[in-house]
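Exam revision sheet. Question 4 asks you to relate a sequence to its structure. Input first:
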Amino acid sequence: MKLKLLALLIILALGATPALAQGESANTITFNGFGFSWDSALADGVSVIQYAGEPLDYEAPGSPQPPRTEFGLFRQIPWDQVPVDEMGYPGNDREGKGSVIVYRLADIAPYDFSQRQVEQLQTLLAGRPDLAGYMQVDENLTAYTLPFLPVFPAGQVIRARAQYVDTGAAQGISYVTIYRQDVSPFIASEFYYTFQGISADGLSYVAATFPLTIEGFLAEYPTDFDYEAFIAGLDEYFTESIAQINAAPAESFTPRLEQLDAIIESIAFLTTGA
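Answer key, structure tokens:
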């Protein structure tokens, strides 16, 4: 993927600026007029990278992607727990905890698929239809999809806990979803919480996505999985899964949804645009 690395910031939770001081429960980052806060129990730090857009004729799964600024939250893995490869070399010492991505709407416009996500969100926000209609199963599994950036090279299978979100800085929708390239039971750690929104000045798009584990789903695939029986009851399985997520108590989610909602509520545009 062609990218232009314009800036890279690593902010540790113990840093004085822009993160809050040690002992406080939240960290805050501001970069190029955009900022947000997150619970220190969720992540130790954040990396900030500005990406140039890929060429419009670039062909790859999920591409081409528009220009964007990506804030990647991470948890530092203790040195004695860092995985090593078969040669004994240490691997990645950071565990990704999700991202907040900021686009300028003007930059998205030439990217057809991404622009369709923007237009769908704008239509939803203008008309405010009941989002319950999107939390159901269609026979082709595509009719009820909700806007999602960045583009994933997979299918949006179900949507749950969908709601409109309005803050002083942005308006949009949040929901829980799962993306798959195959047909198989859901694994508890495969879900995502996402917020897709547009800034109050109408110039920027914000896409926040966090990996989510939901209790009550399989921890791993069963060794005696009956694929044919599963396919026969697929619609019922999806419908029951949506109902299960919608009814799940707060303690069923890791991280807790209120931690993620608080990130969205904290989003601020300190200058015009992103």
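Marking note for examiners. The radius of gyration is 19 Å.
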